[in-house]
Specification:
The chain folds into five domains: 117 residues, Response regulator (Rossmann fold); 142 residues, Beta-Lactamase, CATH 3.30.450.40; 89 residues, PAS domain (Beta-Lactamase), CATH 3.30.450.20; 72 residues, Helix Hairpins, CATH 1.10.287; 148 residues, Heat Shock Protein 90 (2-Layer Sandwich), CATH 3.30.565.10. It has 17 helices and 23 strands. Bound molecules: adenosine-5'-diphosphate (ADP).
Length: 630
């Protein structure tokens, strides 16, 4: 203020009225005072060292909106007054200076400012409290959301949702209704009337016109007794919010809060909460339903697996156990310990089992025998399941093995016992024409006897062979060149083939690896298969032998254009004494040849299989481990 006498007069008058006064003669000084003292009122002269006082006051107000600012105008000018009021100044005083009037104006402005300050503080407190409440509500919602999404038990979820709905809205009651499975009735599933700590679970049919309206309309309602729809609610209901619960695009139920004793309508904010909670409920209902359905399926599968005769282990792609039935547990003595998620090699420590599983995995042949030290024998079957892992089925074949051994022993004994009398019969038959001349008819009879005895001797020899191979007595091992065996056998059988006008072709050109094994047995394999090929092929047909090496195997393929083997017979064709249903009547056979072939191939670590079509022909494939070249 540049009018110094007036200024000092004012200063004195203000100090006399118990005000602390600080004078600022420049803008910088004013700034300093504002920062240091936080004054309760500012009196600005209209011009201050060439600075526009009104502008200065406006700037100060921008920074301290609640500071009362009074303008000391140069003259009593209504234009200045208007400008000052518009800029938010509290008052304007102007010459002629009446100090009392100025002091009063200042006192008045200060009092109003104090009232204003109180109001602002109260407002800030109120807003802060309301914000805190919102934050706590939000936190509750987030907490609840986490709880709900973490829980798969439907009853817990429903009870939590209703309890939270009541707590968050301050309602007297809360309830949750679901449409039943047939979509016809409304069932009350959870209700809270404030009398207990949590909402109680229910399962009662309920009639509720308003809830049905919400289900049909798919929109929430927020009624109070005096709003038009409110009349549809119960007489003792003052206000209510019903929000639809949507699952998979359909209304599955209604979540509601009710005020009875509280004569208070619900706010739009409450409505929003209930809608959010209804969404939480929806997600959880869906999750819980899916979980229940999955659990049911799992229980069914469990029941089925518990009752099957075989052991079953389901493993995932990392070989961790997903399911194991009691038979499998018993087989490996695993008791009742929880094995779900445990790697199979840790759960089952049996060394040979783990070795078998490893070798089965890389092997196209999925059946393996597993023998335990205590004499039990299991058949392991490993079936990979795309995207899941694999099923290991374990069948206890101990008793079958025992029967098979008994049968083999029996056959072996019989064959053995038959051999001597057969040799004697043959010897005497051969002696017959030496002891005296035979007539033609006698010669024919002797021939018949000789043929029959030869057949039986062949059969007995085959049976003895099979017994020896199966018992593993056949340990003789040599380096064998299979091409040579094939060539010799083909040469030997050429005559038989020519008699039936059958051509035999061999494709063995590429350099082929040797195999390690018993040359006599391997010759038996090739011989049996080629004899069959000629035997079961009609006149003019073709027999072909192909050989090739693949990785570390040798593959021999013997094909013919013969009668073929019907599909149902193919599964049994390697069994002892089995003959196909279409084996031609005139073609003699015992059904032992292929059983011998299979035993020999397997005792050499190989596999045999076939492809055949009736009337078109048959191909036998033999896979043998190749000997690595030196
Ligand atoms: P066998 O020939 O003595 O009857 P095998 O064990 O050698 O006994 O063969 C079993 C059965 O398989 C035969 O009876 C025949 O029905 C069928 N079979 C074998 N080889 C062939 C083939 N190449 N073509 C058609 N059927 C065959």
């Amino acid at each position: 203020m540049e009018d110094l006498p007036t200024l000092h007069l004012l200063e004195r008058a203000l100090r006399g009225s118990n005000f602390d006064v600080a004078l600022a003669s420049s803008k910088d000084r004013l700034d300093a005072i504002l920062m240091e003292t936080s004054p309760s009122l500012l009196l600005v002269s209209q011009t201050l060292q060439g600075v526009d006082g009104l502008k200065l006051a406006t700037e100060v107000l921008d920074r301290f909106p609640t500071l009362p600012v009074v303008l000391f105008a140069d003259r009593d000018d209504p234009v200045i007054y208007k400008k000052a009021m518009r800029a938010g100044l509290r008052d304007v005083v102007a010459p002629p200076v009446q100090v009392d009037q100025i002091v009063n104006s200042i006192k008045e402005s200060k009092k109003r400012a104090e009232l204003m300050g109180d109001w602002v503080r109260r407002e800030v407190r109120r807003t802060t409290a309301s914000l805190e409440k919102r934050v706590s509500e939000m936190e509750s919602l987030v907490r609840l959301g986490k709880n709900i999404h973490g829980s798969l038990a439907l009853d817990d979820v429903l009870s939590n949702v209703v309890t939270s709905a009541v707590q968050l809205t301050g309602a007297n009651e809360g309830l949750l209704m679901l449409v039943d499975e047939l979509g016809q009735n409304l069932v009350l599933r959870a209700i809270w009337d404030g009398s207990s700590e949590k909402a109680r679970i229910a399962s009662e049919s309920i009639k509720d016109e308003l809830a049905l309206e919400v289900i049909m309309g798919g929109k929430p309602v927020n009624y109070s007794a005096d709003s038009p729809g409110g009349r549809k609610a119960n007489a003792d209901t003052f206000a209510l919010i019903y929000a639809p619960i949507f699952t998979r695009g359909q209304v599955a139920g209604v979540l509601g809060v009710i005020n009875k004793q509280n004569k208070r309508p619900f706010t739009p904010h409450n409505e929003l909460f209930i809608a959010v909670l209804a969404d939480y409920a929806a997600i959880s209902i869906r999750n819980a339903q899916l979980f229940e359905a999955t659990e049911k399926e799992r229980a069914k599968l469990d029941a089925a697996l518990t009752n099957v005769q075989d052991g079953v282990i389901l493993i995932d792609q990392e070989s961790r156990i997903m399911l194991i039935n009691p038979v499998a547990r018993r087989a490996f003595g695993l008791g009742m310990k929880n094995l779900i998620g445990v790697p199979i090699s840790e759960a089952i420590t049996d060394h040979s089992f783990n070795e078998q599983i490893e070798s089965i995995r890389g092997n196209p042949l999925k059946h393996h025998e597993l023998s335990f030290e205590d004499g039990r024998v299991f058949n392991l079957q490993y079936t990979p399941i795309n995207g899941v892992g694999a099923v290991i089925a374990i069948e206890d074949i101990t008793h079958l093995k025992m029967l098979d051994r008994l049968k083999s022993d029996f056959i072996h004994t019989i064959s053995h016992d038959l051999r001597s009398p057969l040799t004697a019969i043959m010897g005497y038959v051969e002696l017959l024409d030496r002891v005296g001349p035979l007539n033609d008819q006698q010669k024919t009879f002797v021939n018949h006897v000789q043929n029959s005895v030869n057949n039986i001797t062949g059969l007995v020899n085959d049976l003895l062979d099979l017994g020896r191979i199966e018992a593993g007595y056949d340990q003789h091992q040599d380096l064998v060149t299979l091409q040579t065996i094939v060539h010799h056998t083909v040469d030997n059988l050429q005559q038989q083939a020519i008699e039936k006008s059958i051509t035999i072709t061999c494709n063995l050109t590429e350099p082929l690896p040797n195999v390690r094994g018993n040359p006599i047995r391997l010759r038996q394999v090739v011989d049996n298969l080629l004899v069959n090929a000629i035997k079961y092929t009609t006149e003019g047909g073709q027999v072909t032998v192909d050989m090739k090496s693949e990785e570390d195997h040798l593959i021999i393929k013997i094909s013919d254009t013969g009668v073929g083997i019907p599909l149902p017979d193919q599964a049994h064709i390697f069994e002892k004494f089995y003959r196909a249903s279409n084996a031609p009547r005139g073609v003699q056979g015992t059904g032992l040849g292929l059983a011998i072939v299979k035993s020999i191939v397997e005792s050499h670590g190989g596999r045999i299989w076939l492809e055949s079509a009736v009337g078109q022909g048959t191909t036998f494939f033999i896979l043998l481990p190749a000997e690595k070249p030196e």
